Amino acid sequence: MLRRRMGRPGLIGTMARTAVVAGTATAVAGGVQRRQQARADDAADQQQMEADAAAYQAQQSAPPPPPPPAPAEDDLLTQLARLGQMNQAGLIDDAEFAAAKAKLLGI
Fold it and tell me: Positions of the region Disordered (predicted)?
């Protein structure tokens, strides 16, 4: 028959107990840390989604950009000068020049 020893545990028993306690503490701490990290990640994801939604909403509610301006028409003096050059070059005669000038001036 084996006799069971009574009293304090021996060196190997103490080491085994210490290893079990340390392993359990490490496992519990790791689980807590993983849960905390998961919560922090979820909160960050939620904040990012809210920021994205707000940016999308702002983009949708913003008025569309104005259309590009139409090309500026030549001013009256430039058009008259061009008519004068065409008349001097012989591209239009005096009657056509007078009619175009009257049309530009609204006469």
Answer: 30-74
Residue 83 has a CB neighbour count (10 Å cut-off) of: 19
Segments of 24-73 assigned E as strands: none
Sequence-separated contacts (24+) of 75-81 with Cβ below 8 Å = 76/104, 76/105, 79/104, 80/104
- Over its length of 107 residues, how does the chain's per-residue pLDDT go in tens digits? 566 666 676 778 788 788 888 888 888 888 889 999 999 999 999 999 999 998 888 878 877 778 776 555 557 888 888 889 999 998 889 999 999 888 888 88
CB 86 within 8 A of CB 92: yes
